[in-house]
């Protein structure tokens, strides 16, 4: 029987600088689902990404288990090929003078600079991903000339060029203005037609759109709620998550929150 989970964790604990950042984590994520992980700053979201990417390792006990793509030990080269992660660090590494076609192409080679010996096959892959994401109009623009939203979508396209199984988006709308924020949200929603599945990590509830099959709330390194968004997104859970009295509103498919009291 083919294992349906790409990530499996049982009783996982992780420490950074002497602090426990992941506490008794029990979590399975299926190949078939788009998942959004939401929590305040310092909740353990980034640490969980590091666990998935094998940048930090859990404490090993007889009761714990961690499998990624059904393997307890996985080759990092295979892992980097099957999982692409997009974060602000990548955006800051891109040569600002690169044209977008070259920014996306650099993702095939895991580099951040101009690729000289590019083949017609490579160029065709770039053109296809730009067409799928409706950003062909950006092809010959320099990275430095793009809006913040366009830059974010360009590095997402760069991550998708190697057709990973899983795309991890780490705070994809952080520090964006309203226009750029909703531009990025709409573009990410369009990715649901691709075979690649999304794990989005955010503190912003605006990111929770209809493409996500599952919402996981994380606080203090622990899961406090997990399930379908219409079940999980409610005032009680969000009050617990953020520690303030709020109400939740859904309008045109997007969730927003209003603060009720100090």
Task: Please give the structural blueprint.
Layout: E1 5-16, E2 19-30, E3 35-38, H1 45-52, E4 65-68, H2 76-82, E5 83-86, H3 88-93, H4 100-109, H5 120-132, H6 148-160, E6 166-170, H7 178-190, E7 197-202, E8 214-219, E9 222-227, H8 229-232, H9 235-242, E10 246-251, E11 254-259
Helix pairs in contact: 4-5, 4-6, 6-7
Kindly describe this structure.
The structure is a single chain. This protein has 262 residues and is an alpha/beta fold. It has a single domain, classed as Rossmann fold, CATH 3.40.50.300. The protein has nine helices and eleven strands. The chain has helices at residues 45-52, 76-82, 88-93, 100-109, 120-132, 148-160, 178-190, 229-232, 235-242; strands at residues 5-16, 19-30, 35-38, 65-68, 83-86, 166-170, 197-202, 214-219, 222-227, 246-251, 254-259. The strands form three sheets. It has a six-stranded mixed beta sheet with strand order 5-6-7-3-8-9, sandwiched between helices. Strand 1 and strand 2 form a beta hairpin. Helix 4 crosses helix 5. The chain is globular and about 50 Å long. The relative contact order is 0.16.
User: What is the count of structural domains?
Assistant: 1
Instruction: Look up the CATH topology.
Output: Rossmann fold
Radius of gyration: 19 Å
**Assembly state:** single chain
The CATH H-level superfamily is: P-loop containing nucleotide triphosphate hydrolases
Main sheet, how many strands, which sense, barrel? Answer: 6 strands, mixed
Percentage beta strand: 25-35%
Q: Which class best fits the helix and strand makeup?
A: alpha/beta
Alpha plus pi helix count = 9
The count of β-strands is 11
Widest β-sheet, arrangement of strands = 5-6-7-3-8-9
Protein name: ABC transporter ATP-binding protein
Domain ABC transporter: 7-245
Pfam families: ABC_tran
GO molecular function: ATP binding; ATP hydrolysis activity
């Amino acid at each position: 029987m083919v294992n349906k989970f790409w990530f499996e964790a049982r009783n996982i604990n992780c420490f950074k600088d002497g602090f426990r950042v992941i506490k008794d984590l029990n979590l399975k994520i299926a190949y078939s689902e788009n998942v959004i992980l939401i929590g305040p700053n310092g909740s353990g979201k980034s640490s969980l990404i590091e666990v998935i990417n094998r940048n930090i390792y859990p404490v090993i006990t007889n009761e714990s288990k961690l499998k990624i793509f059904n393997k307890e030990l996985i080759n990092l080269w295979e892992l980097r090929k099957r999982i692409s992660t997009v974060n602000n660090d990548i955006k800051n590494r891109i040569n600002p003078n690169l044209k977008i076609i070259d920014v996306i192409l650099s993702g095939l080679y895991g580099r951040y600079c101009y690729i000289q010996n590019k083949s017609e096959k490579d160029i065709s892959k770039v053109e296809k991903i730009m067409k799928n994401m409706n950003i062909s109009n950006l092809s010959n623009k320099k990275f430095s000339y793009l809006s913040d939203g366009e830059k974010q979508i360009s590095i997402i396209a760069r991550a998708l060029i190697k057709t990973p199984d899983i795309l991890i988006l780490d705070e994809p709308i952080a520090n964006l203005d309203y226009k750029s924020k909703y531009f990025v949200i709409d573009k990410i929603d369009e990715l649901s037609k691709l075979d690649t599945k999304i794990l989005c990590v955010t503190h912003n509830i605006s990111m929770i759109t209809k493409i996500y099959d599952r919402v996981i709330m994380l606080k203090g390194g622990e899961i406090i709620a997990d399930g379908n968004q219409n079940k999980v997104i409610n005032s009680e859970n969000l009050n617990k998550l953020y520690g303030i009295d709020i109400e939740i509103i859904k309008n045109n498919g997007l969730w927003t929150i209003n603060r009720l009291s100090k």
